[in-house]
Amino acid sequence: LYRIKDVPITKNLDTAWSKAVKIKAGHKCEVCGKRDGVLNSHHYVGRVNRTLRWSLKNGICLCYTHHVGGKESAHQDGDFIREWFKTNRPEDYEHTQYMKNTISKRTNADKRELLKELKAYIKENERIS
Ligand SMILES: [Zn+2]
pLDDT band for position 127 (50/70/90)? Predict the structure, then answer.
């Protein structure tokens, strides 16, 4: 029963996180500034990491080229995106490095709280971005 209930909240969290990352970035690629075309919310530390999966500090809004398509992209060149992240968002880089080895077991109540926070962030910021 718990597992069945767990699926929608996780999906809702992923959706809200992705939207909030784009809003935070002003709906443009954080690397090149491109606004048109598809934008993706990239997890700096892979989303299998539950501690950082829904953290805005771990999200980078990228165009297709800088996400997966180009040679200099998050999925094709780990060094490239690491250097970019370290240089442009040093505090978030430090945070992710510090947090990635911590284990957090989130209860459904924790997840609901997190979803509330992300939704509040979206509501507060979507008009001004
Ligand atoms: Zn780009």
Answer: confident
CA of 103 to the centre of ligand 1 (A): 32
For residue 105, how far is its CA from the centre of ligand 1 (angstroms)? 34
Residue 3 has pLDDT above 90, yes or no: no
Beta bridge partners of 42: 60
> Tell me: the pLDDT tens digits for 55-85?
999 999 999 999 999 999 999 999 999 999 9
CA of 66 to the centre of ligand 1 (A): 5
Q: What is the pTM of this model?
A: 0.90
